[in-house]
């Protein structure tokens, strides 16, 4: 399934159930038969206590304090229900981005590997198209790096307020370059065994420069950009491979149908699957991992997987199990219970569990299986895809932002803080405003997720062309191509000769429009003083809004938010991705990667490099496969 921001923001950019920015964000396989909606009535607690198994202790409410028994009891499995048994060294639960690389690394370490994938072989497909990583030779050869890896680790920690795990971040940063180079080294195009992605050109390799490129800050239009770029107190690096096929110049119709909306990452990952199979890995499709098997010491030694007919297959694992089973965004009970910030805002807005569900349909199988043997989900605040989108084709450019009352409310350059700040504003439109100098301001920014992307300079130059063609004084505005991602779907931009008229076009009341004009006047005073004394926005962005026509775009703030593509709350592990129990002790034979792994995002998806959900899944999958088989990692 191709998932785009357009699918999540139908009807306009809304701080609501479909908030998401980058299609390079999800870590699991595409819609899986084994990842179906929860059968429990949404939001209702199970009257029975959760069953204790292998170290778990009582009802999850005892330590998660949710009021909903989202964990429940593990399935009762009788050996008489086991139709078949396989023996091996490593079992990987999940065949998405993380599971593919975990299986490959483990087989390269000499292990006999079984991969359990809940989808059919026909419909197995990884999500995502942006692969964030650091210091691959591929990046360095194009002039991006080598970067200071320790500096990037520290930036991750700063952005997450220290709520993430520094060792887990280090495992990503220090191993991601090798992982990426290794993955693309296996691509030998063409290969008749590869299933092409819809709309891709089979005559062109997915790693050809026409299909895979590095997103860059818009300042490159005026010359080379030195990274990191500092914006709003945060650093960003050009350090992402965007695997999106050839560029599309089409504006598309109102639904965005004609936009360039696909990824070739699955074609790349298929070569890693084939390599693991050549080395002896066995892939088992339509196998939903349901319960871990432990020995008398509590070590994980295998998995029971459910077959389509309701029988079970037993997989014995002499070395252990790697959980790569995705998130729990499709389990409305788990999401409502565990993602408290989201569920509380939604409840206050009169919404329920189904409203916040993610695009993912995964039900948290990996999380549950680990908890049943004593594992723990990371504590609050549990991260989701809470990155902000402005509803404008220029994305997160730090123009002046005004809430529905016409008031400024934050440092617009600190994009990391935009989601939380915007969610707390009054109901109604939040707009971004500039003037005829808008393009000069755009070129001063970094390459934050959601920022204008000049890796393909046409994205920016065509945006300028579209904005220049927006009619002044037309209340319907004009449709402009997105400059942020490959999708190029249109967004509405308005132009007017006065701030009041512009705000009226964007749905502001007369009173709010007058307040907006006063806010612009105050902003211009700060610009003339040369410093933002109100919110301390970077001086380089303080351009007075005083040369009409004025331009603006907006999104509707409904004061609640859905999960987006996926939720990122995972299991507590040590720095080598081994799952920990309630006492902080390692559970022998159990590792986690992808969206089963906690400690990655802390407070949310606030990262210095775009594409980190996919990049971390791929890298942590490889790290887990190596660690589980005794190989060294950095």
From TrEMBL:
Region ranges (Disordered): 37-60
Pfam families with a match to the protein in the record: FAD_binding_2, TAT_signal
Tagged with keyword Cell cycle: no
Signal peptide bounds: none
Chain ranges of the FAD-dependent oxidoreductase 2 FAD-binding domain: 89-121, 277-613
Key words, A-Z: FAD, Flavoprotein, Oxidoreductase
Keyword Cell membrane tagged: no
InterPro entries: FAD-dep_OxRdtase_2_FAD-bd, FAD-oxidoreductase_2, FAD/NAD-bd_sf, Succ_DH/fumarate_Rdtase_cat_sf, TAT_signal, TAT_signal_bac_arc
Swiss-Prot/TrEMBL cofactor(s): FAD
GO molecular function, one term: steroid dehydrogenase activity, acting on the CH-CH group of donors
Name used for this protein in its record: Succinate dehydrogenase
Species whose genome carries this gene: Enteroscipio rubneri
Lineage: Bacteria, Bacillati, Actinomycetota, Coriobacteriia, Eggerthellales
């Amino acid at each position: 399934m191709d998932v785009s921001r357009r699918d999540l923001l139908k009807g306009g950019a809304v701080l609501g159930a479909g908030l998401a920015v980058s299609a390079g964000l999800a870590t699991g396989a595409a819609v899986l038969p084994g990842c179906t909606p929860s059968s429990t009535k949404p939001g209702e607690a199970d009257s029975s206590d959760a069953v204790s198994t292998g170290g778990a202790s009582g009802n999850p409410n005892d330590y998660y304090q949710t009021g909903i028994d989202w964990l429940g009891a593990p399935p009762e499995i009788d050996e008489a229900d086991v139709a078949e048994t396989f023996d091996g060294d490593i079992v990987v639960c999940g065949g998405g981005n993380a599971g593919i690389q975990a299986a490959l690394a483990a087989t390269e370490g000499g292990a006999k590997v079984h991969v359990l994938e809940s989808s059919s072989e026909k419909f197995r497909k990884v999500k995502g198209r942006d692969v964030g990583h650091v210091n691959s030779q591929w990046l360095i050869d194009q002039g991006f790096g080598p970067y200071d890896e320790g500096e990037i680790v520290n930036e991750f920690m700063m952005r997450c307020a220290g709520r993430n795990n520094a060792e887990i971040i280090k495992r990503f940063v220090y191993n991601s370059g090798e992982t990426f180079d290794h993955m693309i080294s296996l691509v030998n195009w063409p290969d008749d065994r590869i299933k092409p992605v819809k709309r891709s050109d089979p005559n062109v390799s997915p790693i050809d420069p026409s299909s895979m490129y590095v997103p860059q800050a818009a300042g490159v239009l005026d010359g080379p950009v030195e990274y990191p770029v500092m914006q709003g107190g945060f650093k960003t690096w050009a350090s992402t491979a965007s695997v999106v096929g050839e560029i599309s110049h089409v504006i598309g119709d109102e639904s965005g149908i004609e936009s360039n909306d696909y990824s070739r990452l699955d074609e790349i990952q298929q070569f890693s699957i084939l390599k693991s199979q050549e080395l002896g890995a066995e892939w088992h499709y339509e196998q939903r991992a349901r319960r871990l098997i432990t020995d008398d010491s509590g070590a994980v030694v295998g998995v029971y997987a459910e077959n389509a007919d309701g029988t079970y297959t037993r997989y014995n694992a002499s070395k252990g199990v790697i959980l790569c089973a995705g998130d729990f965004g499709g389990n409305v009970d788990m999401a409502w219970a565990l993602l408290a910030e989201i569920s509380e805002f939604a409840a206050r807005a009169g919404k329920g569990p189904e409203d916040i569900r993610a695009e993912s349909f995964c039900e948290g199988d990996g999380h549950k299986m680990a908890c049943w043997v004593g594992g723990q989900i990371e504590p609050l605040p549990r991260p989701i895809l809470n990155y902000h989108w402005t509803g404008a084709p220029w994305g997160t450019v730090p123009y002046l932002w005004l809430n529905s009352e016409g008031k400024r409310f934050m440092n617009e350059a600190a994009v990391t803080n935009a989601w939380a700040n915007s969610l707390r504003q009054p109901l109604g439109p939040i707009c971004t405003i500039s003037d005829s100098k808008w393009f000069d301001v755009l070129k001063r920014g970094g390459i934050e997720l959601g920022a204008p992307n000049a890796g393909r300079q046409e994205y920016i130059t065509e945006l300028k062309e579209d904005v220049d063609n927006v009619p002044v004084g037309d209340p319907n505005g004009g449709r402009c191509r997105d400059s942020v991602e490959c999708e190029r779907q249109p967004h509405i931009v308005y132009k007017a000769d006065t701030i009041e008229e512009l705000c009226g076009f964007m749905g502001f009341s007369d009173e709010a429009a007058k307040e907006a004009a006063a806010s612009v006047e105050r902003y211009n005073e700060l610009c003339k003083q040369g410093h933002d004394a109100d919110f301390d926005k970077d001086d380089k962005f303080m351009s007075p809004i005083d040369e009409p026509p004025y331009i603006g775009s907006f999104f509707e703030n409904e004061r609640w938010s859905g999960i987006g593509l996926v939720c990122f709350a995972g299991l507590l592990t040590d720095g080598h991705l081994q799952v920990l129990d309630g006492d902080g002790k390692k559970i022998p034979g159990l590792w986690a990667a992808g969206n089963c792994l906690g400690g990655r995002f802390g407070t949310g998806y606030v990262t210095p490099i775009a594409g980190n959900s996919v990049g971390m899944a791929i890298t942590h999958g490889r790290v887990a496969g190596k660690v589980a088989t005794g190989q060294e990692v950095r």
